[in-house]
Amino acid sequence: VHPVSQTSFVGYDDLLVPTRVVKYRKVKAKNKEQYQLVLEKTPFYAESGGQVGDTGRLVFGTESLQVTDTKKENGEIIHFTQGLPKDITMEVTAKFDVERRLHTAYNHTATHLLHAALKQVLGAHVNQKGSLVSPDLLRFDVSHFAKITDDELHEVETIVNNKIRENIQVEIVELPKEEALKKGAMALFGEKYGDRVRVVTA
User: Fold this and answer.
1) Of the candidates 201, 153, 196, the residue with the CA atom closest to the CA atom of residue 176
2) What is the pLDDT of residue 49?
């Protein structure tokens, strides 16, 4: 189960969208100035559940701003840039880095496969306690009462690799949260879920 954004996130279906800036501000942290922009709608995925936020570009006519990070704040998706366009009121095309998102998504899927394999090998008590999912790597923190042995790690690795090689069809639906939980969807530690959730089944 993945939380559904409270703001207009369209990045599961659209790679780029025409939109407008609805608010912005200048921020200073560690003696470095940045700008934070909120768009009417966005394809940029905000950092959530351990998965890093998207990067990409906001194109205002002939001007292009690099988006260095995307985060959520008070239910809004914030795009971090190093500057502002000359005309903040004009239409903007929001384009995230597709290759970076794909590599991040592969690692996100791998965390779910890893979680299932750890439960299979070590027992149902094993739960995710934290994670980092980026294009280059994933880190997965778990609770277990003993050190995981080399043989157990090898068995987990084999299970995950075999699942990847099966190339299973993924089904994605959006459901009311209670219905998803009744159907057996696994809600992860500390995630904040709205009334509707995105359920990924493989």
Assistant:
1) 196
2) 80
